[in-house]
Design a protein that fits this description.
There is one protein chain. The chain is mainly alpha-helical. It contains 9 helices and no strands. Helix 1 packs across helix 2 and helix 2 runs antiparallel to helix 3.
Length: about 210
Amino acid sequence: MALTPVPGVAIEGERSDQELVRDARQGDRQAFEGLVRRYSERAFRVAFRVLRDASSSEEVLQEAFIKAYKGLRTFESRSSFYTWLYRIVVNMALDRRRSERRATTVEWDDSVAHSIDPRAVAPTSRDPELASQRRRVRELVVEGVQGLPEGQREVLLLREVDGLSYEEIAESMGISKGTVMSRLHYARKKMVGFLGRHGVTPEDVT
């Protein structure tokens, strides 16, 4: 159904995120619903890449939007609305993943990611020892990601989970492309070091 323009009121598609956030803060529920429609599919994909389960991802998505709505007045607009929402979704998905002890698909470097990405290995194994080893590595990945400094963690997840380009990350976080590359470099280095200290190498799960 086509929208009928109201004099003096911009339709959803013409309003920026900042305008929708401003209007939602003023009690315009339709404005927040516009943000939900704009980002729900994208945010669902983020949750699904962490949880690999549609039902759990949908629940996390709904809870994340509720949390975002309730916390909208505390949103300082120093980052984009999506980056803020993204952090909420990822943190909630990782919390759920940790509580349910399910596999994650966070990656940080091609040489390591291929070895631990559940999409790159068989979903089941007849070797109980190998299957246990893979689960341990994936759990360590989640622990390592959670232990990164906030800025590095955000860049890592935006790049490796959501698949944003360096330019998109820089724009969404309000930092330079060089800063993005630097943070990503150190995040990956710390992740490799973290796994190394736990006796895990890429060859362990190839």
